[in-house]
Amino acid sequence: MKAEWGSRARRAALGVAAALAVASPTAAAPESGASVTARGSTVAFDVQPQDLGGALTAFADQAGLRLMFASDVVARFESRGLQGRFTREEALDLLLSDARLSWRFTSGSTVTISRFAPGDIVPMAAEGVIELDEIAVEGTGLQNAWGPVDGYVATRSATGSKTDTPLIETPRSISVIARDELADRGATTLQEALAYTPGVASFASGRSLVLDEFLLRGFDTAAGNLGQLRDGLKLQANVYDGAQEPYGLERVEVLKGAASILYGQLGPGGVVNSISKRPTFTPQGEINVTGGSFENKQVSADVSGPIGSSGEWAYRLTGLVRDGDTWMDYVPDDKRYIAPAITWRPTDRTSLTVLAHYQEVRTRFKAPMDADGTVFRAPGVGRVPRDMFIGDPDFDKYKINSGAIGYLFEHDFNGTVKFSSKTRYFESKADWNYLTFLGFKTTAPGDPQILRGISERTEHSKTFTSDNNFQVRFDTGPISHTAVVGVDYSRLTYDTHRFQRGVVDSLEFDDPDYGNSGVKVDYSRDNGFKRQIGQVGVYAQDQIKIADRFVILAGGRQDWAKTETSYYRLGRQPDQKDDAFSAQLGFVYLAPHGFAPYVSYSESFSPTVAANFLEPSTKPTTGEQYEAGLRWQSPDEKTLITAAAYTIDQKNAVSFAAPTNDDDSGFRQTGLVRSRGVELEAKTKLGDWEIVAAYAYTDARVRKDEDPLLVGERVALVPYNQASIWAAYDFTSLGAPWLKLGGGLRYVGRTNLTEDYISDANGAPIRKRYREVPDYLMVDAVARLDLGGMTPSLKGFHAQINAKNLLDKKTYSCTSAVQGCNYGQPRTIFATLSYKW
């Protein structure tokens, strides 16, 4: 029998061997040096499509085997994965068939893998396999760009390339926050999920109940058509479409810097890509009951597994119900969330997953206030208490219902060409009333009052997005290529009615009287609008690997965008059409000993909507990023360290000035914003320790503006320095494997207050007064008990306590000195009892 055995012949031979093993164990007894395990028994495998080395690692985990092979044997090969029940022999044959590799049991549970050589006679169980310098592979957990991560250290991501790519081969800075880390830190908002990520300015204020807001490398993700994705597609049409629920996520990934080559209209700071939990073919589940500060009560559950016995179908159902209050008076934190998902894999080459989620949020919005009265003491007033509600419980509300449904489809034609398609429809509706902060007044000494305005809004958003591409893998001599060519489309509709005039009584500062605010809304003037943004993009990218040492990532994209806007008060605006070409080029050197220096250049593009209501003659905002970095990955892939330095220029930036008339939005477009910085990040599994450490220096400031007093000003909310460390210790080595303790420190440096000027005798600003929001150090902690490890009768039960801001540090986040400051979250403690299987 020749080396070019067909996969059909090999399967037939294995089938006969398996049948003999089952029918006659004596006849199937292994020869000396072969496996002594029950080779006819089957195992349920769930090996995802990925590179062959990763697939073999996953196989080793699930089969309980030790694999031996030379590293170059599996290099450059891809695996289509494996799902269903097979003997380990059948599974090996299927995994190795495309790569034309042979295998044999060499002792006990050890398998040696080698190449077929032309002319060789290499039966499956033959002796005399080619001698190799072997390496051992013992699985550490299934990992691909979208699935679970064992611990904190992710090694693969698709956010930076739209392909399943090792992070060490990606010439961009990407941070991955895995499910285990989210669970250990007890993250309940996306802001908390990103709190230990370098380059992200994230603030856990009362606004995080309503929206997800953060800045990446100094640029707001809410600008530039939102820098927030779900499963690689744009999710929302507006920042007020509701916050994402972290419990529904498998991981959160942050791609730093300009990325329009991949996702079209974006700001230059980067994107946050949330990866949904997906069905598994291995049964698993958990039920959690949580309670804690501010009478918070929550029940959550996550169950997944196969449907039927065919091995083709799997499901997942994730849900959460929360009822509670917050540290702010009269502000509830009530949520309902459910996320069903189903996967169909009729063959090992085809997969279809349908993902959906729906959530209801009931809370209230605490309006931002002046820096004087919160961050600083206001003359005759002092500071508004952190927990004081300045609205009216009978008027204020934030009720939002939102949901999405979509699919992820993949078909691998022949191991070389793969087609991927994903589409989603998202919709949200919100009723949002709140009383705004206008300032203080004093009618008598020691009797300060809060002046309030009115905002009544209804919000309705719809988003349809679709991305379709072909991925082609091929070799040209010693050079391997992974090329992606695709087209994506999105249409975002945002419809808002806004009434912001009326009458409302002031509120007594020391003795507030709620329910008698005399709120009367003037409905004669609607300052709302309806806006539709459509985008079509065509992109092409090639990942080139040369001699397994050099990686080049190059790509380009052409975008066409159309914006349609109708103001309810001013009427329909002329359509705005924009187009742009975006490029990306990066280089990685895979040096010996796990080091990987890289450099890259990337661009961003985003239409800017109507600087003037009547003449939308704006130019697209564009960005350019230059980045250089160095990664180090340990041989066991349990440590990943990244250092990056970058500079970003945002051109045609928008700033705000006082409106000249009722038809003037106040926005101006003449600016240049530059951000420069350095970021360090380390994630490791070191013995019984799991550690995350980060540092970021960010200098983001205005370089050009119509207002000369803004030139040189730092961007608000962006600290020069941020540093953090989170460490968790498993007490297994000390004889207490049921105990895990952890804690974290987060330092956030001082941030700038904008638009705060000293004026001359005529009231004209003559220079800026430099004031800063103070820095702070936060302490978080966790304790986890495996109750089943302590008492066998409680197998599956776990208890966990999370403390956030343990020292109750008072913190602030401010976008401006006037009506722009919020208090941060005080000490919060939650306890959770879980049952897992």
What order do the helices and strands come in, and which of them pair?
Elements: H1 7-23, E1 42-47, E2 50-51, H2 52-63, E3 66-69, H3 71-74, E4 78-79, E5 82-87, H4 88-97, E6 101-107, E7 110-115, E8 135-137, E9 156-157, E10 165-166, E11 174-178, H5 179-185, H6 190-193, E12 200-202, E13 214-216, E14 219-220, E15 228-230, E16 233-234, E17 249-256, H7 260-263, E18 270-276, E19 284-292, E20 296-307, E21 313-323, E22 334-347, E23 350-363, E24 397-412, E25 417-442, E26 448-476, E27 479-499, E28 502-503, E29 507-508, E30 520-521, E31 529-546, E32 550-567, E33 571-572, E34 576-589, E35 595-606, E36 621-633, E37 639-656, E38 667-686, E39 689-704, E40 721-730, E41 739-748, E42 751-752, E43 757-759, E44 765-768, E45 772-773, E46 776-786, H8 787-790, E47 797-804, E48 812-814, E49 821-823, E50 828-836
Parallel strand pairs: 3-7, 15-18
Antiparallel strand pairs: 1-5, 2-4, 3-8, 6-7, 9-10, 11-17, 12-13, 13-14, 15-16, 17-18, 19-20, 19-50, 20-21, 21-22, 22-23, 23-24, 24-25, 25-26, 26-27, 26-29, 27-31, 28-30, 31-32, 32-33, 32-34, 34-35, 35-36, 36-37, 37-38, 38-39, 39-40, 40-41, 41-46, 42-45, 43-44, 46-47, 47-50, 48-49
Helix pairs in contact: 1-4, 2-4
